[in-house]
Amino acid sequence: MSSLPLTAGTTLLIVLLMFATTFLVGKARHRYQIKAPAVSGHPLFERAYRIQMNTLEWAVMTLPCLWIFAIYVSDLYAMLLGLLWLLGRILYAIGYHRDPPLRARGFVIAAAAFGALGLGGGAGVIVAILGGAA
């Protein structure tokens, strides 16, 4: 496999975001005295938990698309779309924490980046299967 340092760096930033959301849930668990395995209680804990879970749910779909796009289309454009996804997720988290309806803008940005990665990566795979150069 060729070297894809930009996608690798973007992946590490996404992992850092997942770690940060996990850390914030732990911090909220402590602050609001929510004992495991409970996942409900104080509304700010529930927001932190939903931010983490939604980020993980989307990361599981986004990371494979990011790498497929990088391999079959472009390391540079995979990085740019990955960073756009990351920015959207950060805006989502900030908005959701402040007031849940404010999460929409970040969600739309991240969803659009995910869509571009998935569609672009899919197109690159199809071109490769059909014998063309991606």
Topology readout:
Blueprint: H1 5-31, H2 43-72, H3 75-98, H4 104-129
How would you describe the overall organization of this protein?
The chain has 134 residues and is an all-alpha fold. Helix content is 80%, strand content 0%. It contains four helices and no strands. α2 packs parallel to α4 (104-129). The longest helix is centred in the middle third of the chain and has 30 residues, at 43-72. The radius of gyration is 17 Å and the shape is elongated. The two termini are 15 Å apart. The mean pLDDT is 96.
Describe, in short, the structure shown:
The protein is an all-alpha fold.
Termini separation? 15 Å
SSE-based structural type: mainly alpha
Number of strands: 0
Mean pLDDT: 96
Cα-atom radius of gyration? 17 Å
| Shape call | elongated
Q: Tell me about the largest β-sheet.
A: none
* Contiguous uncertain segments of 5+ residues: none
Order of helices and strands: HHHH
Number of contiguous helices: 4
Instruction: Classify the helix fraction into a percent range.
Output: over 70%
Please indicate the percent range of residues in DSSP E strands (runs of 2 or more).
under 5%
Features:
134 residues; mainly alpha; 4 helices; elongated
